[in-house]
From TrEMBL:
Reactions this protein catalyses: heme b + 2 H(+) = protoporphyrin IX + Fe(2+)
Cofactor note: Binds 1 heme b (iron(II)-protoporphyrin IX) group non-covalently per subunit.
Subcellular location: Cell envelope
UniProt-recorded name of the protein: Deferrochelatase
Keywords tagged on the record: Heme, Iron, Lyase, Metal-binding, Oxidoreductase, Peroxidase, Signal
Keyword ATP-binding among UniProt keywords: no
Domain Dyp-type peroxidase C-terminal: 176-354
């Protein structure tokens, strides 16, 4: 689509558009807040709201008058197109430290991202007071947006880390592929199943947080040169799906449902395959499902001449412990760990939606 509504009970960029038809370009940018007190933080939130409301709708930038710098970079020309832009703003646990007096209002499950066995954490790529997820139809729109935001929020926040993402269209059909060549996103929850798994609606959470969601970002390098030397058989057993079609190993079409009950020993779909560990499809694990909305990244070349590319894993859920951490814990020693290297990311809380033209991000919190 050309544009997505900015106002609503929930922020855009999660279910609108959803993982299956998400925009092809993205950026994840984490910021440190440099605003000095709660009033300045509220001003920052109001500015972010105004910019998001304008940029996601598009239009002609307001002229600042003679002698002032131009109102816009003109990267997108004199009239800014909406270009399918969504901005999704979330907050990290560090925003709730002493600086702003918000400690008692922290979402109940929000902590710094845990370090898991097999992680290679790089502090330069981790955490942040705020996270902006930008998605749009073209990469120049993403660049324009981050530049506009940085310009308007100078002095109140600064970039901590930023990574650009892209996704692939269906090839030849169905769900897009990740950089290991496998269709990625097939078994995502949809419809009301998805809504019921992601939007926070727990009386144990602070009232302001209802309608938000926990967002996990994991920057996961893929050792693609190494992967490309693995036999197709072994690759497919690691995921539990066919590479060409995306079908589970006991099926023929991408959206066939794997039947684990008929294969208790894992002779068709291995017990330690990624899909079987991630979602064993038993009644007791149904509420551990999460919504994935990931992108590919490419950061060029490392010192050894190897490609520095991989996966910006992103998922949304009601409860980061019940969902992401439970699933991630089951995946700790999956065979895939030899081919991937998580090095960054963070845990964030997506603020509830901006309701109307008078509302702003985090109004009920601040
Ligand atoms: C499924 C790839 C990391 C959770 C899948 C599928 C692929 C895949 C190809 C099968 C198709 C699909 O249903 O989407 C990857 C790669 C990863 C990665 C390449 C890392 C580089 C993770 C992580 C988690 C996760 C960190 C969560 C902790 C899931 C879940 C499913 C899934 C829940 C669906 C299983 C089902 O319902 O059948 N992944 N994944 N994945 N993955 Fe991952």
């Amino acid at each position: 689509a050309d544009s997505y509504p900015f106002h609503g009970a929930h922020q855009a960029g999660i279910l609108t558009p959803g993982p299956a038809d998400k925009q092809s370009a993205a950026c994840y940018a984490a910021f440190d807040v440099t605003a000095k007190n709660k009033a300045e933080l509220a001003d920052l939130m109001k500015t972010l709201t105004t910019r998001a409301r304008f940029l996601t709708a598009g239009g002609t930038p307001e002229n600042l008058g003679i002698g002032q710098p131009p109102p816009d970079s003109d990267v997108l020309g004199p009239v800014i197109p909406a270009d399918g832009l969504t901005m999704t703003l979330s907050v990290g646990s560090s925003l709730f430290d002493d600086r702003f007096g918000l400690a008692t209002l922290k979402p109940a499950k929000l902590t710094p991202m845990r370090i898991f066995p097999n992680d290679s954490p790089d502090p330069a790529w981790m955490h942040g007071d705020l996270l902006l997820q930008l998605c749009a139809n073209h990469p120049d729109t993403i660049h324009h947006t981050i530049r506009d935001i940085a310009k308007h929020t100078r002095g109140a926040m600064q970039l901590r880390w930023k990574i650009d993402g892209y996704n692939s269209p269906p090839r030849p059909s169905g769900t897009g592929r990740n950089l290991l060549g496998f269709k990625d996103g097939t078994a995502n929850p949809t419809g009301t199943t998805a809504s019921d798994l992601i939007w926070v609606d727990d009386p144990a959470e602070p009232a302001w947080a209802r309608g938000g969601s926990y967002q996990v970002v994991r920057l996961i390098r893929m050792l693609v040169e190494f992967w490309d030397r693995v036999s197709i058989n072994e690759q497919e057993n690691m995921f539990g799906r066919r590479r060409d079609s995306g079908a589970p190993l006991d099926g023929t079409n991408e959206f066939d449902t794997p039947n684990y009950a008929a294969d208790p020993k894992g002779s068709v779909i291995p017990l330690d395959s990624h899909i079987r560990l991630a979602n064993p499809r038993t009644p007791t694990t149904a509420n551990q499902r999460l919504l994935r909305r990931s992108y590919n990244y490419d950061l060029g070349v490392d010192q050894n001449g190897d490609l520095q590319a991989g996966h910006i894993f992103t998922c949304f859920q009601q409860d980061v412990q019940r969902q992401f951490e439970t699933v991630q814990t089951r995946l700790i020693n999956e065979p895939l760990v030899d081919y991937v290297q998580p090095f960054g990311g963070g845990y964030f809380y997506v603020l509830p939606g901006v309701a109307d033209t008078r509302d702003w991000y985090g109004r009920a919190l601040l």
